[in-house]
Amino acid sequence: MKIDCVGGGPASLYLAILAKLKDPAHEVTVHERHAEGASHGWGVTFWPDLLEELRAHDPESAAVIAERCVSWRGGFAHVGDRTTAHDGDLGHAIGRHEMRTILADRARSLGVRLAFGAEIGGRGDLPDADLVVAGDGAHSRLRTAHAEHFGTRVTTGANRFIWLGTTRVFTAFTFAFVETEHGWIWCYAYGYSGGHSTCVVECSAATWTGLGFDRIAHTDALRLLEKLFAEPLDGHGLLGRDDIEGHAQWQAFPTVTNATWSHGNLTLIGDAAHTTHYSIGAGTTLALRDAACLAGELRGVGPRELPDALARYERRRKHALLAVQSAARHSAQWYENLPRYIGMPPERMFALLGQRHSPLLPYVPPQIYYHLDQTVGRLNSLRWLKQRLGPRVARALQGRRPES
Q: Which residues pair with 75 in a beta bridge?
């Protein structure tokens, strides 16, 4: 088949790689509107299970990613002048530009055509394609052109965030919560190379306005944030610009869902199909899993069998996303309700930070939940009961809430 992928991110590139590996006869092109070598974003996170999946699908690109990523275990939480450490699971990070370069090089070596500086406005620009894959992000132009068919729904979170970089290299995943006269503001920071880290800053809309971020200049905002997070930054500055998008922008996170993922020979992948809140660090992982699933369904398929293959892809990925999307919703809500937890001792607050995906947590007083969770963690039988009954109890309590 002739496969055209629009958008040069990890989802499109990995799909192109796997499609060519499964059937070298496919003619695959990846269209990227920006110039080759242009950087975008800072670092992305992923976990060991993804690395194992990448090794199973394409050992060659997985080996390069494993070699160039950085790793950490556990993390720190700074709450005002109090600090607590946590021994957690192994995590990995890599620069987004670095990952794209690795995947682009691998795709090119397999015979994939990479068309940089190519602006694709719609399916009409690709009349000869058997399959058009919209991998052009959360604000996908291809999806937006058929939003009514896809049943696209975009909901925005209550908090404001900005995605920044820093030359402070964090060797563990670090949270820092700072109290201001206008409320709490916090950051998530992690290293992704030998010289840089990602630093995502978040706060409520009221704090954002109170601190003046809705009206002060970009450079003034960076200086203010450097002052607020002076301790964790340890004298390093914040970086708010990349080569593509210009200055980093404050946003309210858009959660994208679609009732259906295909329209004729057009299908969605990655953020064009779905987004999950950045606080669970799953965006790149889910995009790569979309690519692997779609490539698997395309194996041995011609244009006539394509509709059934796309239906299977959508069905499998939607099922796999259910638990992740639920975790992302609850994680975002935990931060939106930060005052509920911020007064706890740091070690307890950090413990509940790790439990923020729980559907039951919003309905149980935090101190009580903490003690229950500690007890459950020591008894296997109670842990099983919590996993089985927790979501059911949460749904029942949610159903009893008065409508606002």
A: 86, 173
pLDDT at 398: 44
Does the pLDDT at position 67 exceed 60?
A: yes
CB contact set of 251 (below 8 Å; sequence gap of 6+): 160, 161, 162
The half-sphere exposure of 221 on its side-chain side, counting CA atoms within 13 A, is 23
DSSP-derived pairing of the beta strands 70-79 and 173-180: parallel
* Strand, coil or helix: 259: coil
Q: Which DSSP helix (H) or strand (E) runs through 294?
A: helix 283-298
Structure tokens at 26: 């496919």
Distance CA 194, CA 170 (A): 10
Kindly tell me the burial class for residue 130, based on how many C-beta atoms sit within 10 Å of its own C-beta (0-12, 13-18, 19 or more): middle
d(CA 33, CA 116): 6
Dmax of the chain from CA atoms?
A: 64
Where helices occur in 69-204 by DSSP H, the ranges are 96-109, 141-144, 147-150
Q: Which residues pair with 275 in a beta bridge?
A: none
Map residue 95 onto helix, strand or coil.
Answer: strand
- Minimal CA–CA distance to 95: which of 203, 196, 236? 196
Chain segment 84-119, per-residue pLDDT in tens = 888 778 999 999 999 999 999 999 999 999 999 988
Residue type, 330: H
Q: Looking at the predicted structure, is the pLDDT value of residue 388 above 60?
A: no
Q: What share of the chain is helix, strand, coil (3-state, %, to 5)?
A: 45, 25, 30
Q: How big is the CA angle at 44 (ends 355 and 86), to the nearest 5 degrees?
A: 35
**How many angstroms separate the CA atoms of 375 and 329, rounded?**
26
* Alpha-carbon gap, residue 396 to 404, rounded angstroms: 17
204 three-state secondary structure: coil
The size of the chain, in residues, is 404
Q: What is the pTM of this model?
A: 0.91
**In the predicted model, what is the mean pLDDT of residues 215-235?**
96
Compute how many other C-beta atoms are within 10 angstroms of the C-beta atom of residue 323: 10
Q: Which CA distances in Å does 92 have to 44, 48, 65, 155, 192?
A: 8, 7, 10, 29, 8
**What 3-state class would DSSP assign to 180?**
strand
Handedness of CA 186, 203, 164, 153 (dihedral sign): positive
**For residue 194, pLDDT beyond 80:** yes
